[in-house]
Design a protein that fits this description.
It is built from three helices and three strands; from the N terminus they run βααββα. The chain is α+β, with helices and mostly antiparallel strands. It has one domain: Multidrug-efflux Transporter Regulator, Chain: A, Domain 2 (Orthogonal Bundle). A three-stranded antiparallel sheet has the order 1-3-2. The longest helix is centred in the last third of the chain and has 11 residues. The chain is globular and about 35 Å long. The N and C termini lie close together (10 Å).
Length: 65
């Protein structure tokens, strides 16, 4: 995971792949950290895939460091 805070908008929604890319880690690593810190990704109602809000990504990053 990157040691620089990810550049995301707090209210923006990011797919799992985009979230992992911005955090500088693998998707499995992102899920591991989210689970460890009790953060549940939202589900896109159209595609039925997980999405993270920018605020959630920042919380994961801050908790990890």
């Amino acid at each position: 995971m990157t040691d620089v805070q990810p550049k995301v908008e707090r209210g923006g929604y990011y797919t799992l792949a985009e979230s992992a890319r911005r955090m500088g880690c693998d998707t499995r690593t992102l899920y591991k950290y989210a689970d460890r810190f009790g953060i549940v990704p939202n589900v896109n109602k159209v595609t039925n895939r997980p999405v993270f809000r920018g605020e959630q990504l920042i919380r994961i990053w801050r908790a990890a460091f």
